[in-house]
């Protein structure tokens, strides 16, 4: 099954309503005896390894385990983008400001705003398989020209193995998980899809990040798309753009 990612440029500035923020779910979509049912803090998470620390994106990925649950886990911590709606709140309180140095008209300070303005987005994946751990581990990237033969002999067999990890997709389609996060839904078996915010989304409209998950289960990758899928793609484009109005932004606004 192909999961189409839509990164929207069509948004207004401002906060996302609290109900639009994502639940944390494991990659298998498990809800029975899931760690996410009662996870209130990360105090019982023991860090085993720093998988990667991206200073440009301000994201760090940690491998470890929870003392309350067996198995390994991956915790991703990310500094969210500034929201213009609450920028003025940074200048209301007497928060701690420590000077590092100053030179002529320039001053460098360490600013510690109140905790509600300094939140960090946390994504918890548990249980984390070895493949999941590798996915979040820093590694070299290579540009490969994919020929039909490479796709058939290498890519396609790997996609077949990945089907065991698509339960989270089926949970969304079947309304077993994230049903309250659905932005658009078309139940047509051929041209229908479900659109939900991606787990990577910070919750801010100016960084809106959506997934379009198609109802057809025989589309494994973009390679499978043919002219017969044009009605499906046009349907996603049309209804996905119109859905922007439910977030109170113009579907044609550019940044």
UniProtKB/TrEMBL annotation:
It is an enzyme of class 3 (hydrolase). Gene3D superfamilies: HIT-like (3.30.428.10), Scavenger mRNA decapping enzyme, N-terminal domain (3.30.200.40). InterPro entries: DcpS/DCS2, HIT-like_sf, Scavenger_mRNA_decap_enz_N. Its EC number is 3.6.1.59. GO terms for molecular function: 5'-(N(7)-methyl 5'-triphosphoguanosine)-[mRNA] diphosphatase activity; RNA 7-methylguanosine cap binding. Pfam families: DcpS (PF05652), DcpS_C (PF11969). GO terms for biological process: deadenylation-dependent decapping of nuclear-transcribed mRNA. It catalyses: a 5'-end (N(7)-methyl 5'-triphosphoguanosine)-ribonucleoside in mRNA + H2O = N(7)-methyl-GMP + a 5'-end diphospho-ribonucleoside in mRNA + 2 H(+). GO terms for cellular component: nucleus; P-body. Belongs to the HIT family. This is m7GpppX diphosphatase. It comes from Acanthoscelides obtectus (Bean weevil).
């Amino acid at each position: 099954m192909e999961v189409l990612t839509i990164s929207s440029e069509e948004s207004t500035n401002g906060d996302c309503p609290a109900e639009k923020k994502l639940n944390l779910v494991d990659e298998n979509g498990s809800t029975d005896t899931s760690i996410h049912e009662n996870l209130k803090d990360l105090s019982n998470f023991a860090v085993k390894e720093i998988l990667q620390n991206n200073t440009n994106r301000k994201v760090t990925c940690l491998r470890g385990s929870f003392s309350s649950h067996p198995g390994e886990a991956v915790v991703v911590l990310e500094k969210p983008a500034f929201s213009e709606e609450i920028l003025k709140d940074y200048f209301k309180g007497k928060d701690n400001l420590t000077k590092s140095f100053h030179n002529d008209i320039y001053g460098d300070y360490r600013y510690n705003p109140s905790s509600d303005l300094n939140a960090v987005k946390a994504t918890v994946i548990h249980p984390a398989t070895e493949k999941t751990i590798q996915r979040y581990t820093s590694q070299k990237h290579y540009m490969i020209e994919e020929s039909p033969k490479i796709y058939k002999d290498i890519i396609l067999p790997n996609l077949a193995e990945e089907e065991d990890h698509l339960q989270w997709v089926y949970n969304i389609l079947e309304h077993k998980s994230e049903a309250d996060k659905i932005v658009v839904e078309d139940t047509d078996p051929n041209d229908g899809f479900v659109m939900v915010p991606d787990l990577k989304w910070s919750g801010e409209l100016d960084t809106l990040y959506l997934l379009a998950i198609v109802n057809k289960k025989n589309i494994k990758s973009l390679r499978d798309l043919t002219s017969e899928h044009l009605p499906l793609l046009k349907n996603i484009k049309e209804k996905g753009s119109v859905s922007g109005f439910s977030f109170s932004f113009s579907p044609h606004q550019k940044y």
